[in-house]
């Protein structure tokens, strides 16, 4: 169990995945901004169907509203947050939150943090 906690919180000089919080419905805009800046981003999407005036519309929305996963080191993430387009999702101690080193485990780890 101790090793699992050490894997979740990475050294600040290593490249790992961070959770950035942004305003709802601005996730794609933040992802475009980060892609232009050269960052790897990830935001799982889901398709929902909504009925408006008797018509069914297909909408693609983020699975975690307002959250974007970004790979980088702590110094790089500070510049992203300084741009005022995003803010860190922090843990109970008030420290920046680094999740995991591979993208496949991101949704599961994030869901565990929300419990």
UniProtKB/TrEMBL annotation:
Top-rank taxon, per record: Bacteria
GO biological process: DNA-templated transcription elongation
Alphabetized CDD domains for the sequence: NGN_SP_UpxY (cd09895)
Keywords: Transcription
Record-annotated NusG-like N-terminal domain positions: 16-102
Record-given protein name: NusG-like N-terminal domain-containing protein
């Amino acid at each position: 169990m101790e090793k699992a906690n050490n894997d979740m919180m990475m050294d600040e000089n290593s490249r790992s995945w961070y959770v950035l919080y942004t305003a709802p419905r601005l996730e794609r805009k933040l992802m475009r901004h980060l892609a232009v800046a050269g960052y790897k981003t990830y935001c799982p999407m889901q398709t929902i169907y909504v009925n408006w005036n008797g018509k069914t519309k297909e909408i693609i929305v983020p699975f975690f509203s307002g959250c974007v996963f970004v790979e980088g080191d702590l110094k790089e993430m500070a510049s992203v947050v300084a741009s005022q387009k995003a803010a860190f999702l922090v843990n109970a101690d008030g420290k920046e939150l680094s999740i995991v080193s591979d993208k496949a485990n991101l949704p599961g780890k994030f869901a565990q943090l929300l419990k």
